[in-house]
Specification:
single chain; about 200 residues; alpha+beta; Immunoglobulin-like; 4-stranded antiparallel sheet
Length: about 200
């Protein structure tokens, strides 16, 4: 009888110890890989995946890693196939980049790529955070094909040109409102003084 109670207590003790051990386990691996080794070649989801149609071609492009940052390597994968036959494009694709701003400098060539298993892979490293426009260009049947897509590198700044524009509009509205209120108060005071003198 006392042996049954001892077995139960030992079993309860083993369960408690294994429960505490499970609580202390820390997971720093993603899909069996250390989290610190994830990069543009990892099997993380892309930051952007877009399918579009340009002329006679169906275009699918993806940007890796999921959150591109300045100073870190990234990659663009581009697939191009004809709409009527579904055959993959077998030429070269030229990749360029420019700032996504009104006063952008001229574009910079990232590289010209041949297909690798029907995929055009272009690596990139940006020195500064910001918004960029990537352009992929190729020619087929004597016709040029140009695909532009935006790329955000780094975290989105809290205040950018749209935020500044909204702040200016709000300040202007507040200033106009205050001026109109003062005008109305001034006219009421003048009217009240005129009524007193009469």
């Amino acid at each position: 009888m006392w042996l049954n109670g001892l077995i139960r207590k030992l079993l309860l003790l083993v369960l408690l110890i294994s429960g505490f051990a499970a609580l202390n386990a820390s997971a720093h691996h993603v899909l069996g890989r250390p989290a610190y080794s994830l990069n543009e070649d990892s099997n993380t989801p892309p930051s952007m995946q877009v399918e579009t149609q340009v002329g006679d071609f169906s275009i699918n492009y993806m940007v890796y890693p999921a959150f591109p940052k300045a100073g870190e390597r990234g990659r663009i994968n581009l697939y191009a196939s004809t709409l009527d036959t579904g055959e993959s494009f077998n030429g070269t694709v030229r990749f360029t980049v420019r700032d996504d701003s009104w006063f952008a400098a001229e574009e910079e060539v990232l590289g010209t790529q041949q297909p690798d298993d029907f995929v055009f892979r272009q690596g990139f490293v940006f020195n500064e955070d910001g918004d960029y426009i990537i352009t992929a260009e190729f020619e087929s049947g004597g016709e040029p094909y140009i695909i532009d897509f935006p790329l955000r590198v780094g975290e989105l700044s809290a205040v950018g040109p749209p935020g500044i524009a909204v702040a200016i509009i709000l300040l202007t509205l507040v200033a106009v409102s205050v001026l109109q209120r003062r005008k109305r108060l001034g006219s009421r005071v003048r009217k009240a003084k005129q009524e007193e003198t009469l």
